[in-house]
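Support reply, case 0932

Customer input (verbatim):
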Amino acid sequence: MPYLNIRVLDEENNPIPGEKVTIFISHMLSPQTWLKDYTDDDGRVYFDFDGGVSADVHVRGNCELKSVELNGEVTVSV
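Our regenerated output:
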């Protein structure tokens, strides 16, 4: 099962708890999927989903990362 782990940090590299993160998952044959969740106390949020080839990561309503490869962890600084 594909996954994507995201860590959200402020300008001083401090984790941001409670931040809303949305991912837009691109699929080859099925419709695209939107998932959202909130960061934990360490600024991390974890997504598991049924399929996809890449994802765009949105924080605070802005697309921060495009076409992220799945099955890994990324860091977003806002």
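We compared this against your earlier run and they match. Two observations from our side: The domain at 3-77 is CATH 2.60.40.1120 (Immunoglobulin-like). The chain has a mean pLDDT of 93. Please reopen the case if you see a mismatch on your end.
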